[in-house]
Design goal:
Layout (H helix, E strand, L loop, with lengths): L7 E4 L3 H13 L3 E7 L6 H5 L2 E6 L10 H10 L4 E3 L9 H9 L3 E2 L4 H8 L1 H10 L15 H11 L3 E9 L2 E6 L5 H16 L4 E5 L5 E9 L5 E13 L2 E7 L6 H17 L4 E9 L5 E7 L6 H9 L2 H9 L16 E8 L1 E2 L5 E2 L6 E3 L6 E5 L14 E9 L2 H14 L1 E3 L5 H9 L1 H4 L7 H4 L1 H5 L12 H20 L10 H7 L6
Parallel strand pairs: 1-2, 1-4, 2-3, 4-5
Antiparallel strand pairs: 6-7, 6-8, 9-10, 9-12, 10-11, 11-14, 12-13, 14-19, 15-16, 17-20, 18-19
Helix pairs in contact: 4-5, 5-6, 12-13
The structure holds adenosine-5'-diphosphate (ADP) (2 copies) and magnesium ion.
The site of one adenosine-5'-diphosphate has 19 residues, from strand 6, strand 12 and strand 13.
Length: about 500
Amino acid sequence: MEMKNIKKVLIANRGEIAVRIMRSCREMGIHTVAVFSDADRTALHVRYAGEAYHIGAAPSAESYLNIEKIIEVAKLSKSEAIHPGYGFLSENATFSRRCREEGIIFIGPSPEAIEGMGDKITARKTMIAAGVPVVPGTTEKVSTEDEALNIIAEIGLPVMIKASAGGGGKGMRLVKKESDIVSSLRAARSEAKSAFGDDSIYIEKYIESPHHIEFQVLADRFGNTVHLFERECSVQRRHQKVVEETPSPVMTPEVRKIMGDYAVAAAKAVNYEGAGTIEFIMDDNLNFYFLEMNTRLQVEHPITERVVGVDLVKEQIRIADGRALPFRQEDLHQTGHAIECRIYAEDTDNNFMPNPGTITHITEPHGLGIRCDGYVYPGYTIPIYYDPMISKLIVWDKSRQEAISRMKRALYEYKITGVKTSIKFLERIMDAVEFREGRYNTHFIENNLKYLLSDTECDMYCEDLALIATYIEHKEKIEKIEQTISPATVRHGSDWKHYGRRYGSLRL
Ligand code: ADP
Ligand code: ADP
Ligand code: MG
């Protein structure tokens, strides 16, 4: 479909998501413009784009977060639109506003919608007004200890103290004991101030053994707002997602319908336009509460794309171009089951320390039902400045059990050398009884850590994979031989650990 206004898009991001967005642009006949920092001169998104512009030094504050520089490149390259991806400027109302002022289409929500949802206290108020259930707790910022003690007396312990400006799993504190309330309150406030520059905090009930369930929404400017069903994201480490799947193994058709309707109502309450995600927390009895809205494309969006059959990036671009969604709610259905694993360059045995470095060899999984969204290649050095995610592995199959088997097969085929990765850890997750039986909650990783980190070989492998195994082993042997003849290819054990410590651990 020919675009009305958008012929060239600047992608204000890097890594796998920049490449993923460019792929959809290419299919739509849209030209792409990459921006890059000093650390990304050789990055795949730079190679993939039609044009690429250097925007500054490696630290993101000097490049990928430099609003004026990015706008300048958009104008210079005559890009009609900017796609922010996730992270970086994607939920920055000032950026959305600056685009509007400069007549550049921001492929994302309006500054008003970002403001209405970005601040968690405001979002809670908006949701209460829209009749969406929120986690019991304060509706205003908590300023004094007395206020805190009063609300806790009302809702009861345990509670979560949360930073209104928090995100990425940061700025949350669990309080279980009465004697900890005052000290936790002080610590939460000062943490919020230093991490987010805003010490506003609020208190909500801690939901025991919860499930993180989120709904994807899409809204056009003609009043058609639909949801694309749920994603189950309860496999988490430190409040950050590790594995996601859809449909959720605990969901029922009745609850799905009710939650989907609430997700649409939530988006409508802020006149939302574009793609967004409504996150809910759900207890064992399927009571659910609004957590927050992410006003952007989500890391885990591909599982929805596969099960619902919609390219979310294309729809984002079409909506931004002023087009109507090509479907209505009743046209959308879930088919089969999809799982995503986030593959990180990290040392799972060493407290998940980021392990950036040079990729010496990589064999990606292929075959029926596999999607691998990555950006690294052999010889590529993962910079220390950004998130250590290497790729996302997404599989689809008819049923959940078959999807798990397929994910195991794909992880088994996935070979990366040069950096430590979370692949083995993910294989163990696929083998864990609670995961296989679909009865896990957000405590799954911490409760099973010993098993997930243990060295024992994973059980069960299909015999017909032996052929591939032999092939890969053979290839590795040849590589070892090649390395001994050409020492230049051998990675030097320089200041590896040191790099890890300097590396921020913010996850997407
Ligand atoms: P997801 O649900 O996809 O895991 P989160 O809701 O945890 O995402 O939010 C994390 C995302 O938002 C990341 O893209 C992160 O970079 C960004 N983010 C959110 N809040 C902040 C913040 N205060 N500072 C920096 N990045 C943030
Ligand atoms: P972020 O902006 O960092 O993504 P969220 O509010 O989305 O913060 O919460 C992230 C995760 O923290 C949730 O997926 C859940 O695991 C946990 N969490 C947050 N609020 C609660 C709560 N009230 N009770 C239990 N767990 C919670
Ligand atoms: Mg969240």
